[in-house]
Amino acid sequence: MMIGSCGLRSVIPRSRFVGLVRPLGRFHTASVLRNSSDEAVHVANTNKYKEVLMSEGDFTEQQSKVIVETITESIRSGVAHVAKDLAKRERLLQLTYQQRVDFAKLRDQLLSSDRNEFYNIQNEYERVKNDLDKLKSKLKEDISKSNAGFKLDLSLEKGRIKEESTHHDLQIKEIDTRIDQEVSNMKMQIDSVKTQVMQWLIGVCTGTCALVLAYIRLLS
After folding, report:
1. What is the pLDDT of residues 57-84, one digit of tens each?
2. How many Å apart are CA 52 and CA 146, to the nearest integer?
3. At CB < 8 A and 24+ separation, what contacts does 99-107 make?
4. Tell me, what DSSP letter sits at residue 40?
5. Is the dihedral of CA 103, 108, 114, 116 positive or negative?
6. pLDDT of 189-199, one tens digit each?
7. Residue of 30, 207, 109, 18 whose CA lies nearest to 8
8. Which of 41, 58, 59, 139 has CB atoms 3.0–4.6 Å from 53's, for a disulfide?
9. How far apart are CA 193 and CA 200, in angstroms?
């Protein structure tokens, strides 16, 4: 025989029903907290509540048994419904352990990746450093060769300019000598012409005087 909540309220007086529900409510809370991780919920001391119903509620033994079983079944159903959404301790421990293992693997992978990346960066740095050293040495050699070639070209150019300057000096001296010779020759020619002109003038003057004297003699 099953009795619902409305049937219980109609059979049990309000004061006795409240007094009965309060200890059951306390028991329900304690049972849920104590048995939330179990597969099946076990409610202890049901006989005690049967006796309370029989002594204080004027229920028969069968009615008390039905009431206690109904309340117990309700408690079990509620706890089972709540327990579906709760994780078991073993499952939580397993998940925690798995997360730790995954975290350790991830940490090892990150450390290995960072180590490999560091080695790669270090090798790349060494390679770039060696390339820079080689390039620096080659650049120094090229600069030295360029300076040597420039100095050689400058020395050759200085020698060529010096030779040309010496040659030009010789040409200038030769030209000066030729000019002096030409001037001397011109002076000699001028002196010779002067002498000839003087001789010619003297001859002309002498001839003129002779003609004048001859003309005078003819007139006299």
Report:
1. 778 888 878 888 888 888 888 777 776 6
2. 117
3. none
4. S
5. negative
6. 898 888 888 88
7. 18
8. 59
9. 10
Q: Which residue has the tokens 């994780």?
A: 87
Residue type, 106: L
Whether residue 71 contacts residue 52, with contact meaning beta carbons closer than 8 Å, is answered with no
- Give me the pLDDT at residue 12, please: 41
Give the pLDDT score at 42. 58
- So where are the chain's domains? 5-86
How many angstroms from the chain centroid is the CA of residue 133? 23
**Those residues with Cβ within 8 angstroms of residue 20's Cβ, 6 or more apart along the chain or in another chain:** 12, 49, 52, 53, 56, 57
Alpha carbons 108 and 100: distance in angstroms, whole number: 12
The CA-atom distances, in angstroms, between 179 and each of 165, 171, 173 are: 20, 12, 10
200, amino acid identity:
W
Per-residue confidence at 132, pLDDT binned at 50, 70, 90? very high
